[in-house]
Amino acid sequence: MLGVGAIAGTALVAGCKPGEEKKEVATGDPEFTYDRAKEEIAREKELLAQDKFFSKEEMATITILADIIIPKDEVSGSASEAKVPGFIEFIVKDMPYHQIPMRGGLRWVDMQCLNRFGKPFRDCSDKQQIELVDMIAYPNKALKEMSQGVAFFNRLRNLVASGFYTSEIGVADIGYAGNAPNQWNGVPDDVLKQYKLAYTEKQLKECVKFDS
Amino acid sequence: MQIKKQSKHYDVVIVGSGAGGGMAAYTLAKAGLKVCMLEAGAMYDPQKNITQLKNPWESPRRGASTKFRPFGDFDACYYGWDVEGEPYTKAPGTEWDWWRARMLGGRTNHWGRISLRFGPKDFKRKDIDGLGENWPIGYEDIKPFYDKVDKLIGIFGTNEGLEDHPDGFFLPPPKPRLHELFIQKGAAVSGVKVIPSRLSILTQKINDERGVCFFCGQCNRNCSMAKADFSSTNVLIYPAIETGNVDVIPNAMAREVLTNAEGLATGVSYINKDDMMEYQVTGRTVILAASACESSRLLLNSKSKRHPNGLANSSDVVGRYLHDSTGAALGGVLPQLFDRKRYNEDGVGGMHIYSPWWLDNKKLDFPRGYHIEYWGGMSQPAYGFGGGIEGLNGKFAVRGEQKEAGGYGKSLKEDYRYFYGASVGMAGRGEAIPMYDNRCEIDPNVVDKFGIPVLKFNVKWSDHEILQAKHMKETFDEMMHNMGAIVTWGGDYNKENNYGLESPGKIIHEAGTARMGSDPKTSALNKYNQAHDCKNLFVVDGAAFTSQADKNITWTILALSMRASEYIISEMKKQNL
Asked: Which 3-state string (H, E, C) describes A102-127?
């Protein structure tokens, strides 16, 4: 159980409202449950001792955008339910090359909104927010002058996908069925049939098999 | 500053704990010899230091890589491309990446477990194409040791009766996964041979100390739970420690091999990274297994009156003939697999099938072969999941609906589900020609933080390797086309980018820097991995390789280290050492 303290600290950055920090820890975000070398613990402590990178306002914008990208649907919850904003706060510290594009991208979005709607993105109406997002979410049809916004939105979409589909909610959504002891008996019969495939006599004879 | 001398005198001092060092420690300790093992990195016990079966959300970076774990946050190998305080330099024009594990067991804790015997021709390539040098041994010399390694460590595969890809003692392989069945079909159209892979993973029990693979697909995290894959730690070092004959000194960075007035090795001096004090440990015999380049660096830094050009280097070949496997890769998606049924297809940690070299180089414009490794399917989500979806979801109709690339919302969530598990990729790993001028040498101006002079690399690919990469890429393109797959990356290859040939070092199969040979004028070691110039000094890592074939080198390192260790035992009995 090396580095319990380190990840308990990660939970701190998962919350976007300072008042909730303690609660976040108490609700039991994952602790460091896996092997850490001495140098890793030192680095992670250092990362977590840093002040928050994103301001309250930036984090509010990230949270709105993340939930536009991954909203709740019939299958699973939203990005914020999967604590994606907290993941993004951590990852920009861990991978500093995200920092300027993220900070600048958020400001770019706010300036667009200010010019169009007289308000920063987070204070715009749902309709206005979607209007702006529609201008930057489709790389092939976006206007040329929106290209910086497209680049930002591509980055954010990727970060949100990373954060969401690696969360417990996201892994269940995507249907990843592994990471558990099992006996590999080959592709299930119904799947083989679906693709009109079959193992050869040689394979059936030589490969390891289990009674299912 | 004083130098602390360990009072205990050992039969053998081993520098390094990977495949070569682990096998030497195991063989020698089991024979009752007293062994001291120096490891430059941390102590590590896979039974306690666990990353296996962890979920992605347990990592705050969701399994992304760091400089401590370049292959991901759950990977079992510490360090890699960039070790703090331990620089190396490159000659102008050289691209060289040097992987350095810093932990007990080294790279074997996370390696691909691809365990390929060299074939008879691999030891005599010069006889075939006139390039490079023949080994001083043939397949018949090493075969008994491959056999013993197969049985001791365990490996799955199939006996195919292929001359260049010899039969062995194989456990049954796992059945191919779905994408592997498609690869098999696509390969057949192109005449590319596909056979079950050969990985050192236990699909059946071989002894009471180790369990059986439970198919989590995480061999790169080292099998803490069942010890069902080969790592030097699980399979060799901890069993060797149990004999009571092995002392491991971790965080011990070797400075030089000590020699006496007769020029014989007497021990090793090292710095303890914890207290930063200087130490010496003595032994009757010294074995270097610090990885090809680190072992050569040690030899070159061990200068004395008797060995003015560095130890075991009267031939001036130490550091020369440095070569890595070639590598080129390409991948994409298999549209047949869009919207596929979900089930657990983790399988073993790696491919279930592979392609051994299948052509005759006499009919080609490059002299040596390569094998192909494959991957794809429904793997555990990690950082990067779904990355670049905007390049995919506008290209293919999703459930019959043609969408605009990019997007967001419920429709985007549908896309991630639709495309998950449809990826497929392949990579060639080929044989490079060891060249006299491709070398690492001591940089006259630079030392690491311990004051040890560092290596300067000077390595260039030749047309032999570049044309081989071209063949790889063209073959992969054709196979992908045969399968109906769409190439999404790696398809951009041309003369200007060396056809996507990876820079040397990247494949982490570096070898050749203290090569064995029959002639002491052109080789550093004899056929028993024993230094021509210093009979009680052995090098049992990739440095000893005269050439490295189109096979991953670990199985041969293990066989040669076992062979050298048995030779040491026999020579000690005869009082020759």
From this structure: HHHHHHHHHHHHHHHHCCCHHHCCHH
Give dist(CA B12, CA B453) in Å, integer: 25
The whole-angstrom distance between residue B29's C-alpha and the CA centroid of its chain comes to 24
Distance CA B425, CA B182 (A): 12
DSSP string, chain A: -TTHHHHHHHHHHH-SSGGGHHHHHHTTPPP--S---HHHHHHHHHHHHSPPSS-HHHHHHHHHHHHHHS---SS---TTTTTHHHHHHHHHHHSGGGHHHHHHHHHHHHHHHHHHHSS-GGGS-HHHHHHHHHHHS-TTTS-GGGHHHHHHHHHHHHHHHHHHHTSHHHHHHHT---SS------S-HHHHHHTT----HHHHHHS-----
pLDDT, tens digit (0-9, with 9 covering 90-100), for B181-222: 999 999 999 999 999 999 999 999 999 999 999 999 999 999
CB contact under 8 A, A184 and B215: yes
- What was the pLDDT predicted at B6? 87
Nearest to B60 among A90, A171, A184 (CB): A90
- Quick one: which of B332, B325, B327 has its CA closest to B186? B332
Q: What angle, 0 to 180 degrees and rounded to 10, lies between the N-to-C axes of helices B409-419 and A147-165?
A: 60
Q: Report how far apart, in Å, the C-alpha atoms of B190 and of each of B103, B185, B367, B482 are.
A: 43, 9, 21, 8
Cα distances (Å, whole numbers) of residue A143 to A138, B174, B409:
10, 51, 21
Interface test with B, best of A10, A179, A190, A204 (most B CBs within 10 A): A179
Name the band, by pLDDT with cuts 50, 70 and 90, for residue A8: very low
Q: What is the pTM of this model?
A: 0.95
Q: Is the pLDDT of residue B160 over 90?
A: yes
CB contact under 8 A, B343 and A138: no
pLDDT of amino acid B1 = 75
CA nearest B329: which of B371, B364, B361, B388? B371
How deeply is B391 buried, as exposed, middle or buried, from its count of CB atoms within 10 A (0-12, 13-18, 19+)? Answer: middle
One-letter amino acid for residue B342 of the chain = R
Tens of pLDDT, residues A128-180 = 999 999 999 999 999 999 999 999 999 999 999 999 999 999 999 999 999 99
Q: Compute CA distances B492 → A153, B332, B516, whole Å.
A: 26, 13, 39
Q: How many other β-carbons are positioned within 10 Å of the β-carbon of residue B3?
A: 9
Q: Report d(CA B110, CA B104) in Å as an integer.
A: 12
Q: What angle do CA B77, B78, B84 make, to 5 degrees?
A: 150
The amino acid at residue B107 is R
A69–B342 CB contact, under 8 Å? no
Nearest to B380 among A70, A173, A176 (CB): A176
Tell me the one-letter amino acid at B464: H
What is the arithmetic mean of pLDDT over A29-35? 67
What are the respective helix, strand and coil percentages of chain B, to the nearest 5? 25, 20, 55
C-beta of residue B507 within 8 angstroms of C-beta of residue B323: no
Which residues of chain A does B407 touch, with a Cβ-Cβ cutoff of 8 Å?
Answer: 137-138
* Sheet with B486-489, edge to edge strand ranges: B370-376, B423-430, B326-333, B486-489
Nearest to B53 by CA among A155, A182, A94: A182
For the residues of B287-324, what is the DSSP string, one character each?
A: EE-S-HHHHHHHHHH---SS-TT-TT-TTS-TT-S-B-
Pick the residue of B39, B57, B170, B389 with the most A CBs within 10 A to test the interface with A by mutation.
Answer: B57
Confidence class for position A212, pLDDT limits 50, 70, 90: low
Question: d(Cα A178, Cα B379) in Å, to the nearest integer?
Answer: 8
Residue B358 in tokens:
């299948």
